[in-house]
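Prompt: May I have another protein with tokenized structure?
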Amino acid sequence: MSLVKYVDRKNTNSVKWDNLQTMYQQDDLLAMWVADMDFKVPDVVMKALHNYVDGGAYGYYKVPDSYYEAFINWEKTYHGYETKREWIRFSPGVVAAFNWVVQFMTQPGDAVIVTTPVYYPFLNAVKDNGRKLITSDLVNNNGTYTIDFADFEQKIIDNKVTLFILCSPHNPVGRVWTKEELKAMFDICRKHNVFVISDEIHHDLVYGENKHIPSFTVGDYDDMMIMLTAPSKTFNLAACQNSVIVIPDETIRQKWDKYVNEIHILGGNAFGYVAAEAAYTNGRAWFEEVKGIIYGNYVCMKEMFAKELPNVIVSPLEGTYLAWIDMRNYLKTEEMKAFMQEKCGLAFDYGDWFGGDEFGTFIRMNLATSRENVELAVGRIIENLK
């Protein structure tokens, strides 16, 4: 019996399904955009939450040691990384966390570098906080992306960059960086005194022979780095607003603690802690099944395009549950939105959101949904292009 159950999220106050009018000025689109899942969370999570709710009293919550132990055990078991209780901090989301770090590790006007195309809140975190955005484009070889180390270093030198926001695995291109690639980036950052925020929120969602390398295991970089992750992508818990920040270096921890004391966000809500602990403790079987569904959706999507529209370029899905799809051989940038929305009735994250018009022929498709939705979405693109 399947542990994973698809759920119709329309009319549940879902951003993905019920915020289409605001985002796309249409409310009748098939939602394939926001990065959350259309699956019920593991039964063990619902049971833990039910037990807490049944207690009936929702006063101030003391975070139990078992919560920290659950995360520590998960990281050690599945990523070979042994973190310590005193290194762990809280934020309500990784987006909040990297905005905070930009604020307390840099000064207004400082240059911050990202590798584009990249998760667009990275771009916003730099611009919204009055820092200077520097982009180093990844090298695109027929859909497979690599880092242009020479460009990355030269941009750091030319702009006196002080901070790098790393996406690992990379959203949206689906790369799982190798140890050698990470080391090369970190060595450049070390050489030029660049602090690193390592966003590893998709670190569990890795397929095949690919292996996620936690940034702190690459070498001795503890004094120049913060790592961010969460159970939200792994277990579909974004609404619980519970993210994990790992800071091995005491000096950096003191800066973090000073900042969060000033804004006085010292912990989250009880429901987030209860859900996260249950997921990390007993959610592995559910997660493995979800991974199989996602990768199956990717293979299905890729095969449909290969058969009917062979010049669609689909990036290899090494990690995340987000497909990065290049339509340049069929559509121009200026045609994309009208085609996808008006002709196909589909809602995607558009490529230009991830770093500008040069990515305008791309779409990012969320694969953490039913096979039926994937086939429907791809089928509509094929039908309308043919």
About this structure: The first strand starts at residue 30 and ends at 31. The CA atoms of residues 112 and 133 lie 5 Å apart. The chain has 14 helices and 15 strands. The mean pLDDT is 98.
